Amino acid sequence: MDFVTSNFETIVFYAFAAMIVFASLRVITARNPVHAVLYLVLAFISSAGVWLLLEAEFLAIALVLVYVGAVMVLFLFVVMMLDINLVRLREGFWRWFPFGVVLAAIMVFEMVWVLGNRRTAETGAHLAKHAANYSNTKELGRLLYTDYAYPFEIAAVILLVAMVAAIALTLRRRKDAKSQDVSAQVAVKKADRLRIVTMQAERKDDQPN
Amino acid sequence: MMELLQTLENFGQNLLGPAWLPLWTIVKIMVIVLPIMGSVAYLTLAERKILGFMQVRPGPNRVGYWGLLQPLADGIKLLMKEIIIPSSANKFLFVAAPVLALAPALAAWAVVPFGDGMELANVNAGLLYILAMTSLGVYGIIIAGWASNSKYAFLGALRSAAQIVSYELAMGFALVCVLLAAQSMNLGDIVRGQQNGYGLLGWYFIPLFPMFVVYFIAGVAETNRAPFDLAEDEATIVAGFHTEYSGMGFALFFLAEYANMILIAALTSVMFLGGWLSPLDIAPFNKIPGLFWMLGKMSVMLFLFLWFRATFPRYRYDQLMRLGWKVFIPLTLVWLVVIATWMQTPYWLW
Amino acid sequence: MNKLINFFKSFLLLELLKGMSVTGKYFFAPHVTVQYPDEKTPQSFRFRGLHAQRRYANGEERCIGCKLCEAVCPALAIKIEVAEREDGTRRTTQYDIDLTKCIFCGFCEESCPVDAIVETRVFEYHGEKRGDLYYTKPMLLEIGDKYEEQIAKDRAADAKYR
User: Fold this and answer.
1) Is the per-residue pLDDT at B254 higher than 80?
2) For residues A68 and A43, what is the distance between their CA atoms, to the nearest angstrom?
3) Is-contact B189 B270, C-beta < 8 A?
4) A189 and chain C: CB distance < 8 Å anywhere?
5) For residue B169, what pLDDT band results from cuts at 50, 70 and 90?
6) What percent of chain B has pLDDT over 70?
7) Among B4, B61, B344, C95, which has the highest number of CB atoms less than 10 A from its own CB?
8) How far apart are the first and last CA of chain A?
9) Mapping DSSP to helix (H, G, I), strand (E, B) and coil, where does residue B264 land?
């Protein structure tokens, strides 16, 4: 019992870490693409848990909100509607295998280099606990809009340009397509469609027989 | 009351030591979840009664006096029914989907303040937490639609997913306006920010009126309620994403939908209608406990939900998307700028 | 200009509020529901419900087996077999109505020259098997005996319009 209470955070961390590793492995090994996406969701949620342990609640919740809540939903959306032929997907596996191994080796090397270096990664340093009223969100906002204002704005502009470009590329008006103009439909008033006519009632003997 | 709780906590702390905290938290969770389940049951009765009254008929009145035992009868019926799992369904996901729909709907209640300090967790980023939890509810629906392996369920799931993702943006922007006004993401602080001694006039629904309307309408869309209930449009896709569900599986979706409705009602009360604050800050009114006001405001919002359902015909899907993207999002963005500018002037009174 | 006015009007949600005021008003309106087993709506004397075979006052069955009803029945629900009785009169040996086929049009009643086959006001009957709704001659006569008073009154009330 004492062991659990004194090492509670470590235990939670390892539980989340194990979950991330398992889920990430399943993302690439799952046969069904929908399962793979759901495992990716699990991996995201577990990493959000790890971030929460680091008192980075803004980032953790933003991860859940943006990636799990929106991006992965759209992913799932697309993957569900695809008709994926697994045999054709696996065709070139052995041909590309060496290339993949080299890429993976480079990534592992880079990670070891960055994380193993005492100057770039302060792995030994314990993070100081903050007071209860410390707001991670406020700190993040302050940093983004003071120290890192220019990089932040530049990143925003790049995203905006990408968005405008994507819209410009897909924007085209087809002349032959028939579509409804919803705003015109909604804006229609009774007077536009209906004309009330007053006329005299017909008498019975007026009617031609 | 508070002293009694404090002595209880101290007693438990001494008795059980470290095991006390999880136990006490579970008790607190039960105190929140069980009344929600009860309200869900009676909200279904209220819905049928109110719809009945608006259609000039009395609604359910056979089970118990005035139909008051109807939810119980419905619950027993759903419990007794056979759970049918379609043979071509993905069994694990099919069973997991209702749970995934219900869990976020209940989890979001953790940060909702029912009174001053009456919340399960006082989280600084409470508003973000709420947004994250409500955005997770869509998984239950999508997975249910996909795992059922039925065209109607799948179409319902796709409609619902696209709808929820679209309206979440408008909802988020409306909440950003609240953040600006309250300068805090803690739901308790948001309510306290609306307390300025003038009662009703201090609430955010006055300066943020368009956002109040947008938030509530987006909330109706987010919970897949009429007139935005295209995910379960019985005229075109049978019952939408829960077409293949029966018995308890269906009941869990039902619970999730109504729990979400109550949640939206609670959030609207907290963000725009002053949460537990009394509408008039004078003697007889501000002596009434805040919980009463909070529940009263929630009931009014829930009545609006049902009133909408009784009044409006269902949207067409393209109109629904147009409303979300072309009306609500621009409107919220404009009002965001208006509020931000307004707050820099001396005319900001809130 | 008109467009601009409409634009702002739609943001005020006036039409939606108008709709809600209608439902809101009816919320307080008295209910029109008839609580069926406790209350019943009034019936016309021309109500077309369960069929019955009538008798004359002396106890003789009216039906003479002319088969007009069988011929006119649009749903082919009536089946009649006829034979001569010992006293030399023409009588039916079989007169069946399949109520699962019957559409309650009332043509049999209209066509009958002796007012033998009639439709009563009874509509609260049921069967637990399909066969239960296949009514034979004794069953129809029994119904006629049971409701004769009511049937006679309804015929009398309708007589002046025929």
Assistant:
1) yes
2) 10
3) no
4) yes
5) confident
6) 98
7) C95
8) 104
9) helix
* Helix H or strand E encompassing C79: strand C78-84
Q: Do B50 and C19 touch (CB under 8 A)?
A: no
Which of these, B125, B139, B134, lies nearest to A52 by C-alpha position?
A: B125
Percentage of chain A exceeding pLDDT 90? 16
Indicate the pTM of the whole model.
Answer: 0.81
Name the residue with tokens 């001694």: B197
Distances (CA, A) of A33 to A37, A67, A76, A101, B124: 6, 18, 9, 23, 37
* Residue entry with tokens 């973000």: B128
Q: Is C129 on the interface with A (CB under 8 A)?
A: no
Three-state SS for B121? coil
- Contact criterion met (CB below 8 Å) for A61 and A48: yes
User: Helices then strands (H, E): number in chain B?
Assistant: 14, 0
Query: What does DSSP assign to residue C39?
Result: S
What does DSSP assign to residue B245? Answer: -
Amino acid letter at B54? M
Given an 8 Å threshold on Cβ–Cβ distance, is C22 in contact with B311?
yes
- The residue length of chain A stands at 209
Note whether B213 contacts C13, CB cutoff 8 Å: yes
Q: Hey, is the C-beta of C6 within 8 angstroms of any chain A C-beta?
A: yes
What is the rounded CA–CA span in Å between residue B7 and residue B5?
Answer: 6
- Distance in angstroms (rounded) separating the CA atoms of residues B68 and B61: 8
